[in-house]
Amino acid sequence: MHDRHITFPDLPLKIDLGAHTATARTSGTDAQKWRFRLRRADHLTTRLAAQILTEAEAKSSAPLLVYFAEGSAEATRLLREHRISFIDKRGECFLLSPPLVVDRRFPASSKPRFDPPISDDARNPFGRRGSRVLRLLLLHPHNEFSMHELAHQAMVSGTLVSRVTRALSEEGWIDLDPDPDDRRFRRVRMRRPRASLEAWKGAWDRRRIPIESWNIRSDSVESTLRRLKRVSAQAPDLRWAIGGLAGAAFVKRVVEPASTLLWVSRDDLRSLEEILLPTRSASAYPQLRVATAPDDFIFDLVDLDKSIPVADRVQLWLDCSGEGERALEAADAVAEAMGW
What we know:
By secondary structure, the chain is α+β, with helices and mostly antiparallel strands. The chain has eleven helices and 18 strands. The strands form four sheets. Strands 1-2-3-4-5-6-7-8 form an eight-stranded mixed β-sheet. A five-stranded mixed β-sheet has the order 13-14-16-12-15. The chain has a three-stranded antiparallel β-sheet with strand order 9-11-10. Helix 2 (73-81) links the parallel strand 5 and strand 6. It is globular.
């Protein structure tokens, strides 16, 4: 990205981009200017946005401006929520350096194609962001969390956590108890994990996530995993994880996988394809079955087993519970290992 100047046809504003700084200028007799620290990115992902937030907290100099070519709605939401300025190549921007305030949004239909088009009712515990709360609770079924801890770890707002936990509590799946140190606050813990999983399975199946079949010229699941292990070493920044029966086998090997399910970030799908150079054939066996993740949050929860990223155990259960009768034994093994 070598852009140097950005202008807005409908705003008296120009932004000059340097190597490490940016300057926003207004025109006219009362012209003003504001300086920013500049951070460039080709693709603004949720993971990168979270990293930028951490970096911004550690510095107290000029405000930060993030400039990127494409970004997901979740990533830009995080920057807006934490008052970090940004602008993309299409002109959508959020600039905040008082008295300068610009919040220029485009319709959702003009978002980059890789942003998952999933509705997200703020009260829905199985929505894209709401399910993060339930996922964290299920991964730690014997722990108690404060609302603040859940919001921080799930990278969502406290309001969303409050609404989702209220919905989970109404179903009887979690307990909401007064905090012994301050009864104005609540502590959250799982009560009926298996019941919540069964309900989630129904919502998950209705998503009907498309899966591509890739032939990467491997002759067994083991050789597929060895190939992916080399990819992990070659491109450690790509976000993907082994799911399904192949992933469940890392927890307990009760059913031999016939193929490998791979979850990948929509942002990194084409990069992975360029490395593996697959052919697409419905008859390829064993297949590498590639699915784009509805929410990149799952890649923040991967287990690194034998240098291969393996999806978290909630995801493994969801995968195996929907892969037919043969895979149910593997789903039960995952549930037993987790105490669900």
